[in-house]
Predict the 3D structure of the following.
Amino acid sequence: MHAFRSHNCSQLRTANVGEEVRLSGWIHNVRDHGNLMFVDLRDHFGLTQIVSEEGSEAFKMLDAARKESVITVTGKVAARSDETVNPNLPTGEVELVAEAVEMQGPAEELPMPVFGEQEYPEDIRLRYRFLDLRREKVHANMMLRSQVITSLRN
């Protein structure tokens, strides 16, 4: 298995249920439900939901990590229950049950959050362009621009 990933965050499907996989990416969002923690892991390709139970080493690492920290998660792919399937995501039918989490790059408090679609003044967006480019809408625009330029060159 590769040191950082066996799949990217948009590849996992129900055909992968039961496989042990490794994903790397940014922590996009965290939802703590007491004894369960759900983390949306994001990379250039998409999102995958990571789940961890209280008491595990993975839970402790995920609980201590901030949004936009870079982590590597190893675990088994599990199918989501019918009521928790997310039809808006390509990976919405599965989740990764975290067995091990490795911190690759911890993040400090962010001057502007990447999650959500808040509008910021241009001076802040330009000063923190590296964060602005991670926002979903800006990233999608950059990918579209790349595809158009590639099409014109071809």
Summary: Strands lie at 20-32, 36-42, 47-53, 70-79, 94-105. The chain has a mean pLDDT of 86. The first helix runs from residue 57 to 64. The two ends are 36 Å apart (CA to CA).
